[in-house]
Structure formats: structure tokens, C-alpha cells
């Protein structure tokens, strides 16, 4: 980690905070993957890491590298755009696939809703 | 002083992300159904991508960014293909 | 002109992406990027993509601002929900009748709803525009419909219709 010694104190502290925030959010999201009981609840959990978690780690990397001036800081934006555009597509397709499979087994979660059970 | 704080927080962040990946791997093994496994795999590659970004900050190499970009794109395609497979039983119709 | 450049915004995006990926604006890279920008959209003409019309470009900035606020807030809420020692099961489905008809509006709404943790897009009935979303912390069903309609649908209709 010798290259980080050249980083000014304010940039180092901001980077440290943002990295910890992002990693913490990703961890919390995956804990939700364990704790929630049904698939439809679990879908929400990993989005923590994929939205704010990813954005804060990208911001940390932007702060770090623009303070060091080792290279232009545009790569991160590209990753951010790709992930924000692709995550909804994957999650939507997964939810649709699950709904389809549940309906095939005649366990339609949407019918349960009509029957008054909202805990699906 | 601040460099030491940054070093420790990068280490801690790597531990967090490794734990998150372990949890996702547990969910992949545990299931119970195919869609749970695919969802956990999606979470696994997002966390792997974040771990590579943190490594990139730690070492200052551009190489890690390209790897994480590639992981992001490949993971997206993989998850979409698997979701499609769950829905129809075939990937390309 | 229309045959050569069927989708100018997409061509521009491809060129910019190429230059960012290579981190240079040297003439050689601009040339290769330009070739990509010319050839890429030709694939799209096979797909018969509906024409995109944006009425108010500046409203997009307002939309992004609202999204940023909501992403931070819902991240906080969902994180608190996950870390609670005892999980309350209040998740459920909500049906919302949508008035917006533009396919791009639907796509944007899908991205927004999925990008904010705590809400997930389930399905949309194309015939009558009934949207079903899954909400993690459902306290009031009518409330959620009102949030989606006033915070996002109105703004999206301003932009796309």
C-alpha cells in the first residue's frame, strides 16, 4: 500500500469512509439474502450493494485517483452506468421467471394477495 | 496517520465483501429453488466486482477496473441467460 | 442521412463510450470509435425500436435528483429493516393503475423502481396498464400507489409524452 502514503489526509479519510460505507452496505444486503424467508423478499436485498454500495465505492475510487492524479477518472462512471442499467433488467427477468414458475406449480402469489394474505 | 486509517479501512472493506460473497455462496448451495440460486449468483458477482474495485484502490493499478468491468458485463449476460432458461427452458428462442 | 445515421443519440453514446474506455481523444481512437458509432446502430434498425421523443430534457435532471434522494433514503430504510433483531413480515404486492403509455416511460419507471431497494417491478399488463410491484415494507397499499404516481409517473409523462 505504498502508493497511498502520497494521498493528502482529507482525500484518504473521504476514501476510507466511502469504501467502508459501500462494503458495509453490500454486506448488509447479503445478510438480508440469508434472513428473508421468501424469494420475493430476498429480491430486494442485493440491490443495496448494487446501488448505493456500488456508487459509494466508485466515488471512493474517483476521489482517491483524482487526488493522486495518476490517471483520468472516467472509468468508474462507465461501470456505474453499466451496473445501474443492467441490474433492473436482471432482477425483473428473475422475478418474471419466478412468477412463471410459481404459476406453473399453481402457487400464484398474486392470488394469495386477493385472498387477503399479504405476507407472500 | 490518515494513510494508516485508509489502509485499515480498505482491509476491513475487503473482509466485509469477502463475507458477503461467502453468504451469497451459502445461499447458492442452500437454494431452496433455482431462482434463489440465480439471485445469489447475481449478488455474488456484484460483490466480486466491488471487491476488485477496492483492490484497485489499494494497489493503484488500472488493471482491476478493466477486470471488474468485464465481470459486470459477463455477470449480467449470465444472469439474464439463466433467468430466461428458468422461464422457458431454453435460452435462445 | 436517415439511412446512414438511424439513431443519432445512440451513435453519439457509442462514440463517447469508446473514447472513455480507451481514455484518449487521439485521431486514431476517434476514427475507430466513429466506425463503431456508424455500424452499431445499424443492428438496431433490424429490431424496429420505437422512436424516442423527449419533450422536456431539463426535467430529466429533476428526475435524477429525485432518484438520488430516494435511493439514499430507501437504502437506509432497507438496511435498518434487515438489521432489526426480529424480522417483521410486512411485504406484499401492490397494484397500481398507470396512465403513462410510452414504452420508454415504462422502461424508465422499471429502472427507477428496481434501483430503489424495497420496491421491485413484478409485471405490467400492457392492455390496461396495471402495474404490479412488490414492496418490502408495506404499511399502506394506497400510499404506495400515490407515491409512484405523484413522484415519478407525472414527471415521466412530462418527459416522454
TrEMBL record, chain A:
Molecular function, one GO term: sodium:proton antiporter activity
The keyword Transmembrane helix is annotated on this UniProt entry: yes
A Pfam family recorded for this sequence: PhaG_MnhG_YufB
Keyword match Transmembrane helix: yes
Membrane-spanning ranges: 12-36, 48-68, 74-95
Keyword tags: Membrane, Transmembrane, Transmembrane helix
Descriptive protein name: Multisubunit potassium/proton antiporter PhaG subunit
Taxonomic lineage of the native organism: Bacteria, Pseudomonadati, Pseudomonadota, Alphaproteobacteria, Hyphomicrobiales
From TrEMBL, chain B:
Pfam families, per database record: MrpF_PhaF (PF04066)
Gene Ontology cellular component annotations, sorted alphabetically: plasma membrane
Protein's cellular compartments: Cell membrane
Superkingdom of this protein's organism: Bacteria
Alphabetically ordered keywords of this record: Antiport, Cell membrane, Ion transport, Membrane, Transmembrane, Transmembrane helix, Transport
Transmembrane region(s): 6-26, 38-57, 63-87
Membrane topology, record value: Multi-pass membrane protein
Entries under NCBIfam families matching the protein: PRK06161.1 (NF004812)
Family statement: Belongs to the CPA3 antiporters (TC 2.A.63) subunit F family.
UniProt protein name: Multisubunit potassium/proton antiporter PhaF subunit
Organism annotation: Chelatococcus asaccharovorans
Lineage per the UniProt record: Bacteria, Pseudomonadati, Pseudomonadota, Alphaproteobacteria, Hyphomicrobiales
Automatic annotation (TrEMBL), chain C:
Keywords tagged on the record: Cell membrane, Membrane, Transmembrane, Transmembrane helix
Annotated compartments: Cell membrane
Pfam families (UniProt xref): MNHE
Entry annotated with the keyword NAD: no
A GO cellular component annotation in the UniProt record: plasma membrane
Coiled coil segments of this chain: none
Broad class of the protein's primary localization: membrane
Domain of life: Bacteria
Database matches in InterPro entries: Cation_antiport_E (IPR002758)
Membrane topology: Multi-pass membrane protein
Single GO MF annotation: monoatomic cation transmembrane transporter activity
Acetylation recorded as keyword: no
PANTHER family registered for this protein in UniProt: NA(+)/H(+) ANTIPORTER SUBUNIT E1 (PTHR34584), NA(+)_H(+) ANTIPORTER SUBUNIT E1 (PTHR34584:SF1)
Family membership noted in the UniProt record: Belongs to the CPA3 antiporters (TC 2.A.63) subunit E family.
Listed name of the protein: Multisubunit potassium/proton antiporter PhaE subunit
Organism, scientific name: Chelatococcus asaccharovorans
